[in-house]
Amino acid sequence: xxxxxxxxDQHCHGVLRTELGLGTFEAHLGxxxxxxxxxxxxxxxxxxxxxxxxxxxxxxxxxxxxxxxxPARYLARRRELGxxxxxxRLLRASGIATYLVDTGLPDDLTGPAEIAATGAAxxxxxxxxxxxxxxxxxxxxxxxxxxxxxxxxxHGAAAVAVAFASVAxxxxxxxxxxxxxxxxxxxxxxxxxxxxxxxxxxxxxxVLLRHLLWIAVTAGRPLQLHTGDRGPASVADFAAATTxxxxxxxxxxxxxxxxxxxxxxxxxxxxxxxLSPVLAHTGARAAAxxxxxxxxxxxxxxxxxxxxxxxxxxxxxxxxVFRAALGRVLGEWVMDGAWSRTDAQRVATMIGAGNARRxxxxxxxx
Length: 366
Description:
This protein is α/β, with parallel strands linked by helices. The chain is built from 15 helices and eight strands. The two termini are 23 Å apart.
């Protein structure tokens, strides 16, 4: 038996505070597939996915129901308990002792303090860089003020956050991030963006995205990177350029490029890979995907997370599928004599919590 009783969820979001009907619940299941809430096609359901089946496998017993109960029965029980009590039961049964919460999404989600209280756990904030820059732009009247305030805001956030996160890879910023842009280039880009930016407009300028990433590197906190549709290839040059600068990079959402992410962790001492949203999405196939990652990555470079957003069920599914997959893969290797049980348990503890505590300099969890 490979035991991982206490987990550090190294990248997640808060949960919704409102009661959910079938449509809203399904929309957030769909977000796990496409990155944003969406409704299934007529005549289909997002419960008919690996994530949906995993929710029905792991979550009903935590609310007093049989595993694999029908979705309508599960959601009726959820409403019967109320959103607060259902969330409390689910999060406290997940085995997650520490949450690192990305607060950069616009949805009305619980923050670190609230998810910590609900889950009887510790929680810390991850600051997403792009919304931070957009907030600075909202309050800066000139290019000079914006650039000065931006640097100050990032370094100020580093005093309270355990990490930064960026979606610049998705927005193509990392494709050109092998070196910082020059001061003139940055001022020109800032002037154009501020002049043409509507109120509340998002940061999409590739020069400013590069500039923002390099400010974060100088702040010294770990930097989590959403690798996007191009996978880890989108961050390869940036990883090489930041070698030896003292900032760890953590690659998020690399599936189906998980082998490439594993390879990058072996190439660069400061590069790590996030595992568990991959496993939650692949459900019953999770053990096979995990084994592929373990073929290439140093075991000290892999981190557990849920990547959960909106539904506490997704924290439960990620933790449960992770434990089951890790136990199956490592257990088989122990049974075959390839690994000792002691080494298997040590590696499981590293991936589940120890690596994250080291990377993010966390004290012991509850």
